[in-house]
């Protein structure tokens, strides 16, 4: 399983690995519990994580960059230590690791998702440095 295969599905919590697409939907596997299911294109939208960007006060940044910042700061400011129901603590955490966040356009609900997704990705060893991801893509294109 690779980071580029991971998708978010509207209406469903958690993250999913895109297994196959069909004309009327997709087959996905839950990253956390490994259950596989069909999702209808009529009811759900599928968004690859690598296409998600986060609003900042400057240029938008890819979600993966935010995850890398979370990983870098984990020793001093662990995401798992943030209480998920304390909005002020969540905002303070993100302001500490990524001061460029646009506070008017990045909602606390988005930050909560990022915290949950980070834990899922980390526990499944899906967080790689940007350089590693580029090397993997280059090797696959060459092969």
Summarize the structure.
Helices cover 35% and strands 20% of the residues. The protein is an alpha+beta fold and 143 residues long.
Element layout with pairings:
Layout: E1 6-9, E2 16-22, E3 25-30, E4 36-40, E5 46-48, E6 53-54, E7 61-62, H1 63-72, H2 87-97, H3 108-123, H4 130-142
Antiparallel strand pairs: 1-2, 1-5, 2-3, 3-4, 6-7
Strand content: 15-25%
Helix content: 25-40%
Oligomer: single chain
Indicate the CATH architecture of the largest domain: Orthogonal Bundle
The helix-strand sequence is: EEEEEEEHHHH
Q: Uncertain regions: pLDDT < 50 for 5+ in a row?
A: 133-142
CATH-derived topology of the largest domain: Arc Repressor Mutant, subunit A
Q: Largest sheet, described in full?
A: 5 strands, antiparallel
Number of strands: 7
Principal-axis shape equals: globular
Computed structural class: alpha+beta
For the termini, the CA-CA separation is 18 Å
Integer average pLDDT: 83
CATH domain class of the largest domain: Mainly Alpha
Q: How many helices does DSSP assign?
A: 4
Strand order of the largest sheet: 4-3-2-1-5
């Amino acid at each position: 399983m690779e980071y580029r295969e991971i998708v978010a599905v509207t209406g469903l919590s958690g993250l999913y690995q895109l297994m196959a697409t069909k004309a009327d939907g997709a087959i996905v596997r839950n990253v956390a519990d490994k259950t596989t299911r069909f999702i209808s294109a009529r009811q759900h939208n599928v968004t690859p994580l690598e296409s998600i960007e986060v609003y900042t006060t400057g240029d938008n940044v890819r979600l993966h960059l935010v995850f890398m910042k979370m990983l870098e700061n984990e020793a001093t400011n662990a995401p798992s230590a943030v209480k998920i129901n304390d909005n002020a603590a969540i905002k303070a955490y993100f302001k500490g690791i990524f001061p460029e966040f646009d506070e008017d356009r990045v909602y606390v609900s988005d930050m909560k998702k990022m915290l949950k997704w980070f834990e899922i990705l980390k526990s499944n060893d899906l967080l790689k440095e940007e350089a590693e991801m580029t090397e993997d893509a280059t090797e696959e294109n060459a092969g």
